[in-house]
Design brief:
- With about 160 residues, the protein is mainly alpha-helical.
- About 65% of the residues lie in helices and about 5% in strands.
- It has 3 helices and 2 strands, in the order ααββα.
- The protein is rod-shaped and about 145 Å long.
- It starts with 7 loop residues before the first helix and ends with a helix.
Amino acid sequence: MAISRKPKSDRAASSNHNDVGEMFAQRFSAVNIYVVALLLLAAGIVWSGIKTAETVQQYHQDYKTLQDMKKQQRKLQVEHQRLLIEQQTFSATPQIASRAVAELGMYSPTLKDKLIIQPGAPVIAGDTIATADTDNSDTDSDNTDLSPDNPASTAANTAEEGL
């Protein structure tokens, strides 16, 4: 008989492990836990990356919206300033009129208070009738209407300036 170098105890050890599947299950049960943990970590990293990208995208959209709103605010401020100036312009005339009446005692002249003098036309001054002096050599002391829309006063003023 041939002498076998294998001890008989190996056969006894192999008989303790009945199935190879059980052996792999025992050996790889710890590996399965690690694989599951690594898969969970990888899924968490991927999920975190996706959420970070979504957050950055939302930030960019919000920032663009903010910049658009700031431009709109600047335009509205310019419009507001323009409207304030326009409002002050339109409200200045009544303020001047009310201050002239209240502080200075000024009033708008009535028809009786107005005296229009035309060259060559008779002028009623009190009870006497005088004719307007058509000669521009003197200072036209009879002309009391100095309003800018009076052609007689404008003509007299330009004639005096020419001398």
